[in-house]
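Troubleshooting log. The previous structure file for this entry was overwritten by mistake, so regenerating from the original sequence record. Sequence copied from the archived sheet and checked twice against the printout by T.R.
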Amino acid sequence: MDSVSTEDTMNTINGTINSAATQLQPPAYFNAAFAERAYRRNYRTVMVRFWRENENAPWRATTLNPAGGAPQHHASVTELFTDLWDMLNAVDHQDDLGK
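Regenerated output below.
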């Protein structure tokens, strides 16, 4: 019976893994622009500030996109959530249109 050392076995396994890793290449279309579009499609950052005039007044909100643009003011939390939902659906719709 041939004896194989643990070191020989590990070298064989590592060689196979390294060989497979060098064969794995991202698709040709996966470039920086593609990665940026994928990132923008799947990630959103919005800063939200909540306030109210007094204890009995409704909560209001202002959103700010850190990437730029004017602040958006929301008269109620419901309006805020509706606008956020619309923003996310607009992103999905743009993706469907191939933008």
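Strands lie at 47-51, 60-64, 72-74. Archived copy saved in two places this time.
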